[in-house]
Fold each of these.
Amino acid sequence: MEYKARAGEHACLGGFASPAVAPSCSLCGRAVMAAGRPEAQDHPPENGFTPLEHPVPRLLPHIDGSVLPSLGGFGKHQKQLVVLTWIPALFIGFSQFSDYFLLAQPNGTCVQPLTNESNWTTAPPQFTVPGGSPALQPKGNGTIREGYGDDSGGMLCACKEWRLELQTGLSQNVVTKWNLVCDSAWKVHIAKFSLLVGSIFGYLVMGVMADWFGRHPVLILSVLFMLVFGLSVAFSVNVTMFSTLRFFEGFCLAGLALSLYVLRIELCLPAWRFSMTMVASFLMVGGQLLMPGVAALCRNWPGRDDWQVLQIVIISPFVLMLPYVWLFPESLRWLLATQHYRRSKAMMLRIARKNQVNTTTEPSGVCVSCVLPELEQELHKKPQRTCIVKMMSTRNLWKNIVVLCVNSLTGYGIHHCFARSMMDPEAQPTALCHADYYTMAGIAVATCLALCPAVGLMGRRGGLLTFMIITALASLLQLGLLNCELSHSQAFQSLNALMKDTLNRKFSVAFSIIGMFSSHAVSTLSIFFCAEITPTVIRGGGLGLVLASAGFGMLTAPIMELHNQKGYFLHHVIFACCTLLCIICLLLLPEPRGQPLPESLADGETFTRQTLLHPGEQHLLLAKTDGDYSRVHDTPLHLTTTGGATVAAATALAAVPASYALATGGEVIGNNAIANGV
């Protein structure tokens, strides 16, 4: 998008002390003329020619180039608000990873079985990425068998009394509270579904509401209902009530995360957008890292179950966001884009005062009075809201958003495939849970660290394309190379088989770590990419679509576990094919680095794919011709009966030397043109 309203594209209004020397505005670089001065009056026509009027470009549509710089740019006020958007990111990280502890599978020992077997133990399943793991059914001989969909499951799980022990920090959670094992294990996955499904609906609904009613109402509404439903979860009396309330908790959590993300993006100038967003990502990963410690602190509290204390501890910090009703204003960018000009005027004066910007003049020439006169002329206009549905009437914008939705879905979906391949089935249960959890968190930290220099060097599109290529290569190598058969002779069959298993395991872990790293980067960058290219009037809805697609990708994990990982290989193959499709589609995306945020749908349409060559180098691709045919034109059909006299006269007129035209003042040429009927 090439509409660049930098410092220097508007007129500064207001009087100055010296009428002889017109000062210049640092935002426009032009001389400032006060209304009513003789120099500013129109001159009479000279030689019969009327000078062309050059309309003054509008300032209000150019928020990054004119409005925000006149208010102090990314000043103290904006930085304080960005910090306020960082604080809840830590609490959101707690809530998003609470399933690992509230719904963790325990070690189970049957104290009083219904059959003759006694004292057989079930080992907990592998600790996987969001969604938990399948319930394990013990056989009569004490071995472990996964699954609970067989007809013999009821017989193998027949037990009057269970002794369940957790190894994830809590001494009791939802699974141990209501004995959700064997035949009731499917309820655990429904509880995991509820939070993710609620988040998906929340992203879609709250995104539209943020575009229609504003970012601030959605933020405050989400905080209030997050406290209500989140604290109610801690007092659930059965798993059905727990799952239902978790759905609404996820709904409000999605609205909270989306509104904060949009507000943070809209507060920043182009140079600050990515860095401020990555700080929030680091804080969310910090919540993931601190979650085991928080769970350990909630263990063995008197009067309440551990999982209830943990839920209350996770939700209670959101009380700190209640003062946001007064501390956090509405997005100025959204107010201007939707023509809420009266509210915009009051907010602009407030921001200028907070940033200590003089509303009349500044020594540097940057003043709010450059923008306020135009704003005064627009006060009579009524607000205009736009729904995300109008995106379908665009030519390029909807394609860009669909591409980013597929990228987000693929990134989170294949992340589960890599995480499952990384698990070691022979590891000890307790060590497996903690090791894999911290491995995932460490990969997330490494991803955030790698994104900063990668995006700085290659840009948004280049970084996204690079990480998607790495994801596709890791996926294809894991599916292809690790399943090929090693050729070996009969004499070394057993030795080669052992070497094959060892090599396969090592390569599988290596490719899984690389794939988790790159897929996490793809998901994070796709969400940020969408926030940059989606216009302000529908940014909430567009970002909600991409975040909802990410939720669908995360939803594949509990779905696969509910079916006992049946069809896992096909699941991985499908997402590997999606990565190849995404690589092709990513080439169609624009590069928004350093560009102002689009405000209207028309601005969003100007975000198109740039050519690979520099514009000044494209003419080198054209073959150089010997003759000059620039003046050769086709003769219109209605002029063919005149014998081409008119066309010949026009051609002769075009061939008159410029020096002759200047010497005659254009009179001879004009007379000849009139005589020939031009």
Note: Residues 429-480 form the longest helix (52 residues).
Amino acid sequence: MASRRIPGDLATGLLLLFSLISTLSAARFSPPDNHLIACGASSAADLDDGRAFLPDSGLSPPVLRSHGRRISLSNPSPDAAPLHRNARVFACPSSYEFEIKNTGIHRIRLHFYPFSTPEYDLSSARFHVLASDITLLSYFGTSSPVMKEYFINLNEGKLVISFSPADRSSFAFVNAIEVMSAPKDLILDAGRLVKPDEITEFHGLSKQALETLYRVNIGGPKVTPFNDTLWRTWVSDVEFLKLSSASKVVTYSGRIKYRKYGASREVAPDNVYNTARATSGATVPGSNYSMTWEFPVSSGYKYLVRMHFCDIASLALNQLYFNVYLNGYLAYQDFDLSDSTGQMLASPYYVDFVVDVDVLEHLSISIGPSNLSNPSWIRGLLNGLEIMKINNTMGSLDGKSPVILVSEDPVGRGFGAFLRSLTCGFGFMSLSVIAFMLFVRWRSESRSLMTWSRLPVDVSNGKLSKDSPHFHSCMTISHHGFNFTMQDGGGMTDETCESKIYVGNIDQRVPESNVIKMFSPFGKIISEDFLWHTRGPKRGEPRGYAFIQYSAKEEALLAKSKMNGRFVSGRPLVVRLASEKHLGDLESKFSCAETKDNDARSTPGQMNRNAKIAAIRTKLKSLEEQGGCATKKPRLLTNSLPPGNKDHSLTGYQESDR
């Protein structure tokens, strides 16, 4: 039977129908959590990609926990994007809180489009941004539109995104926020860790916080969010292609063959896998590379490099072998794409690499020929590329140290929360008065406790005497429960100060409870002194430093190493052992007493005990007034902050909506 020819109009209609079905099937992803917020807007903002951003005020449940100033362009141009016309400005620490239905990896996007009004020039803003205790931005500011994208693994039922001005003269702003559940297969847990001398496995990748820096369509044009199932933008590689020898752009009009448990359209769309840049294998003179791309990055971080491959250039299977290099290090030797895709052409596949950038301020990705390849075959190919920054060990994606924000208590929590706060405040004030009265009584009873006694001279075997070269006459001075041991040979130790730390340069906005929260993860806190001005014009205001007593010296050293230099409310903390702060002063006083009494000594190197005792008493009295080590009896903490508590979220105040 002869086959009938399909009319041209019908064939065109079937092709359009097939394209429509493909487009609809590619847009099936529906995230369980999908918060699209237009900050400062009074009505919804509709985008060209079909998404609608809701205003940040008037939602139920509310997401804006600290009302800042709402500003808008007075005369926006018709071409201005909907998200460019409004912004929310914060003059003090503020936050957004989002309900999370499904835990796991979520994508967070922050839109910053600076514009000017008579009151604010958004390009002059400087601020910090945190999400789930991860520092996303530190001292951030921009004069041009920018969108920041992050991936964070959320294990709780809420996400708090906080904004805080970098200093009191600055402010923060944001135009739009996106919080969306990521597909389960988007970020896997393992990758290939590339080192100078070896390649190992990197585990725990899905638990890290990531910042998207580059998303590139190799060999193809820009891909807009309308053509991506996750509303992503893929830029052309022309700007980043540095070395290319005999490379060519390859396009493919056939169907991309997605495999079960392989790369999906959520990993990368068809438009990325339909184009590639390929090479016949000729290398750039003086190197092993055929193609190289370079990207500016920040040093001091690890980076996730995801390379997308789809063999749309080979004429047959097993005719494509090549090597992959990252920053000049061999990352994958003799890569066989046919074997990786289960012996299928035009089937997508991706490889995740992790590389550490210590000194260089750029990241290079190169493709080179393999010794297994045939000169007549394609000897290198790449379809797409993504580069993401991995958070450092301090939980920061911007800066070496994380930022701790002090935010105001939100007014939107209702009258019940306000009443509870008021009751707690009165209770705390009453307890404070009682504690102060007890402290005054204790101080009056302990004024006369300064004593000293000679330590025993004899030892158990009775062989040590004053004439022994190893003998040192010692005495112990007790004051308010603290013991100082002093030897004739010089020197002095404070047993309690070994496990006590001094915390200085504390911003006045940081309350005492937040100081305890910050330092509780490093060990068991048995006492804490938060110093206040007791006289003068600053009476009742914090002095800006505190003393924290741990149960062991190791815990104090750990707190010092982790918290010294850490930024809190825009100021770096000064953390050191209490003995480091005061022993030098005591020793200097002893040396002065020794100098004055040198003439009365018969043996060089010895000091008069009366001078030592007088120096100690003088210093202890000084420390009482300053709140230093070996001062008033420490206030014991309750069990409300266990040693393992790692909640670093700090709340405080907020600016009302004006």
Note: The chain has eight helices and 40 strands.
Amino acid sequence: MVDVRFFFVSLIIFFFIVFSTVSQSPDQTMEKKSLRVLSKTLIGDDGRVYACSDNDFFSFESNGSIAWSVHMDFKCNTGFSPVYSGFNQMLVLTENRILRIDFPRNGTKSEPETFFDPGETILGFAVSISSSSVYITVKDHGLYAYNMLRQQLWIAEPKTERFGYRLGCQKDYENCKFDSGPVIDSCEASIYISNNEGELYSLSLRGTYNQWIQDLSVIDRFFTVTPGNNGLVYVVFPTKSLVFALDSFSGNILWQKTVGPLSESSGSLPVIDTNSWVSIGSLDGTLYSFSRTGELHKTPENVETDSMIQVEPLLDCSGNAVYVSQTKLEGKTDQVIGDSTFVSAKKPETAVFSLVVPETRSIHWSHSYSDQSPSLLLDEDLQHFVLDERIVLAFIAASNSGNPFRCRSKHDKLSSSCSFAEPEHLDIYIGNERTIIWFLLFEFVIIVLFAALVRFCFMFWKKQKLQGRPFSAFLDKRRLLHRKRREIDRTITRLQNESTADEFSVDKINDLVQERENVKRKLSSTYSLGRDIDASSKSKDHVLPLYRGGSRSLSFRNRKNESITIFETHRHESSSSEESYRDQHYDDDDDGVADDENDEGDLKRKQKGKFHAHSEGSSSDDGDDESCGIASSRRSTYLKKRSLSFRD
């Protein structure tokens, strides 16, 4: 890349020449000397143009008439434009201090007040309306942050250290200083500022935290910074004719493009529209526009050789198009000497103002002005000021000349701001996305299973049978109960398959069924793998025993034609409660094997007692009807003998 340095042969400003007559009287010459120079302008949301001149601050209507003005005690700096600070207030840089000017209320004007007076040279300032803060760069001191109440928030310097390591100012640490005004990125809540070594800083609005530092001195130390509010920050090197796009999150360079020669004094600041296209004018007369990805559009495609764009474009009220001022000259010469390109221009002839849509490269409106078009002066109030391309372009943009688009409201501006900003996504995993999803699903299943296992262990170790006794005894008891249940099942099956059906068999089957239920209850409660179930609570549901109905009878006939009928009724509910209580607390022995042996011994004793009762009842020879009851803890059996009549 070559250095581009622009020198004008003529020292007369373009519009001061265009709207001057060739022959002037002495009175006209004296009147021209009294013309005032306006500072850089600001187009407000209300469509007015704000600027200052000498010791006065002006608010112009879009047609050029003065809406109101305020006198200041200090002379304004024409190299800086006023900045809107919200709450119907403007901040203006005057000499080495910043004044705050309130808008008139009900026709009443208030005197400007000093907002900041460091007593040193102010290099620039910026306002963040969202945080209600003002950021000011003071020469040889640093960056100051103040709120709207003029209270100091913090001070930042280019010399910073973190964990013992220096950040920035790598080449000359002692003489390193900030040498540019701050630039605010509203979407990223960041401040961009550079030092005299060619390093670009990204600071947080809330403090002095350095988000990143990019060393651009390898390209050039002189550059301008423009936030894109779309996830990018644009850096323009006028002497190198380069445009860089940096990632606002990390500061990495995403792309770089070459443009035509640029002016060092003005015109090196690009403008970004709502479609995220950045446009910058060149001294070759071409408007260069780049998309967010670096796609280039040139407008116009076929430009005349004797033309140039020396002021920055302005965004229209819709945000979709830009106003451009192109100057046509009598002649222009480009000369390359070494690594530098020198552009010399002759007398300007015509100024062409156009409304261009960078995305489509379409020109919706264009008009040329020359010394034969005195109608350019919109109002008589502007005759008291020097009009150049920069001032006239501001009034054309404020008046929406030839604009077919609808202007945006404040709500539209807020909704469309940061719409193209893409948040930075940090990739934790590197690989196939489908594999990552399956891996995450597998991890989720493992976590769920682990949580279920922890919950099971928590409930299992709270079991009463595991308190104060080894776990092996618990498992031995479970095995014995399972084996006992299987033996009972086999015995019941064998007895049911036998052909003889006597009282002893029926009693034994019923006892085995009851024992099997007890074993199942133990396996599902005290010796289960889950939580303990309080079986005694079920017996407390009813105070009085309930008759559930249902009975059965078994009849047998012997050789003497005597019949025995056995009636079986349900056992009393209280006995069931007692057995439940006994079964529940009977297992509190220290040896599970001994508990099982005791249960088998009880069963044998009960069966033996019932066998004796059956033998006595069946061997009786008394001829009269006799009833006898055999009571047990499990059921009641009634025996009845009846004599049968014989045939004579």
Note: The domain at 237-373+409-445 is CATH 2.40.128.630 (Lipocalin).
Amino acid sequence: MHSLRSNLDRRVSPCSNFWSFACGNWSSNYVDNFQLVEQRYANAMIAVLTSSRLRDPSRLFKQLQDYFTACVAHREEQMQLPRELLSGDGFEWTRATARFRKHGLNGVFFDEMADVAYNDSFSYVVQLKMPVADNNYSPLKPETRLERDLRELREKYGNEDPLLQLWTLSELKREIPQIDWQIYFEELLEREPGQLRVQISDVEYFRKLGELLRESSKTALESYLSDRLAQFVREANLDSTPHNCIHHMSAVLPLGMNHIYDRYVYRTRSEDMRQLQQLFDSLRGTFAKYLEHNRLELSYEQLSYLHAKLAGMQLKLGNLPVNLTSADYSFYNDHYASANFSADSFAQNFWQALRLRSRLQHLALGQPGATLQLKYYYVNDDLFRARNAPYFEHERNTLTVPLVFMQWPFYDHRQHPIFRHSLMGFILGHELNHAFEQEGILFDAAGNEALLGVRIRQKAKFQAALNCAQYSPTASLKERLADFNGLQLAYDTFFGLGHDSHRFEYRPYDFEREFLAPQLFHLNFAQFFCGRLPTAINHDMDDVRVNEAELNLHQFSIDFSCTRHQFDSVGCEMWRAASH
């Protein structure tokens, strides 16, 4: 409560700008909430990896210690490139692109990844698609002819919902002969590719891309690829403070770092998981009541589809295999068995870690049936900044809460329920609702894209809710929907679906005499977003997120006694019964 009160700016009316009221008094010494928990996480991991008293005999632990030692010693060292990146018997762009991909640089001419098929969430395929705009190279020097041609090609064939094709490698070679796929996959997988299954979109883009690159000169291609590689190295290089090294390792070696944190630092897993599961189940119970009301006037089959998805949804604590304990060293050691990190060279370790990550990503493609082994599954994607906020995986129908997130001020199992429900309840509600927004609705309970989801999305009332949420500009419609519906779900779960503050007189909590329960709920939710308002990526700015989500919640104006002139609720309900 002391922290909550200290951030308030009482010069501002909560009815006119709630974010400013809740967060307007933070000082120049204020530490962003994510920065705070990341700092605590890094401090704990530094202590573990540098401890002289800890006796861990595993090879994995020694490998992580050596990587950390080399990283901290790294000072403006030139990031030497592996010799193979631009070498070989004559230059060939397809082979060079595959080498780049092996070393972590994706999206040069196209995006490639190993992931599950759109219609079978347990079957691995190679996914190929046109690179998104954020992956495209933006050089500081004037645009070359090749760069211009590539940009114009992306602009011409860009499509928000491209048609997916699921082919064998033989079919890919036949349908897009302009690119030598045999060379690409032999180099990438370092073996005969056999009969891979390939999921590809933007087919016409790939055909024209192959023609363009065949007609381009060797000099132009080498120059472009060299520039892309140099840009990648600049972005990947880091200021090697101990804290930065820990965060870097958590991104490129996520399984190992999560395992060590879970084993030596995290002490409250059992109680935390019990409380999280209880909170998650209560949110699902409230959402099930939304579905029973059937606001969208869905058919029995469509409602069954949604109920099955909700019932099958899983909660996962930490990006770790769910059926392994932190004491099970054999799996973790075997997983990183090919690593040979040194305490002397960060550059060597860095490129080796990226090669290892790429190899592990593509490992399942060479196994019988290319089937996902759920027992050993964890998220291992192409990031240089670890996932520290909860996230929802449509293909797994699973909500994961990273271990780093399980710290105050985000969460503490000793907190009063009003604080747990208003912050973690909102976070879980936000992620849960990603399963039911305009993109998530397409995935069924098993994580496969389904026609029933398309039909639900086409319902007039579903489309009306989408249009309502766009009454003001937004950087991401699906994130706004998750905010709107997640906050409403958390509020309804804590106070009750038929709650009306007009009908109740609240007794203050023992620890707080000024703000009553509904007001504390709103304030604690809002203060999750306190900070310096950095430029948002794929989200609205934090002040916009708070103010718009509360504007959508009709109970807010009642809880703070706002007049209609001060605060006119929007009320863009999608699943919940209409507010009055």
Note: The two ends are 32 Å apart (CA to CA).
